[in-house]
Amino acid sequence: MAKHIYCRHSAEIEVPFFDVDVMQIVWHGHYVKYLEVARCAFLDAIGYNYNAMLKHGYVWPVVKLDLKYIRPARFGQKVCVDMVMTEYESCLRIDYTLRDAASGEKLTQAHTTQVAQRIDNGEMQFQTPESWQEAVRQFAGFVPLKPR
What we know:
- The protein is an alpha+beta fold.
- The protein has one domain (7-138): Thiol Ester Dehydrase, Chain A (Roll).
- The chain contains 3 helices and 7 strands, in the order βααββββββα.
- A 5-stranded antiparallel beta sheet has the order 1-4-5-6-3, covered by helices on one side. It has a two-stranded antiparallel sheet with strand order 2-7.
- The chain starts with 6 loop residues before the first strand and ends in a 10-residue tail after the last helix.
């Protein structure tokens, strides 16, 4: 069964010199940073960034991360990070595809899962806060799940 895509967003990153090794390819750990840059751009676009999460009394740790390296990104390369949100009510689940911005060639695929955790007592939430859900539903690109 295909995943439902609630929202789509993209961010472009130019690979900086300090992210590459002696072979001028991106060190594998920096891809996590590129996911975060794209995720933060999306959160800003929906008006519910990490500062808003804190204001509402929650932190959102990453509880699952999966990366599949297909081709290396290189120094100076422009990389498009396309992301799709596939869950927002029980957690924040995002699938990412990193592509060369010029050719569209796929470089990396990734998935992250974040959960809401109350700041006051550290309790993990099995339902995301209503303030978060409302922000997602108000996003211009939101696609609701159709009733069966």
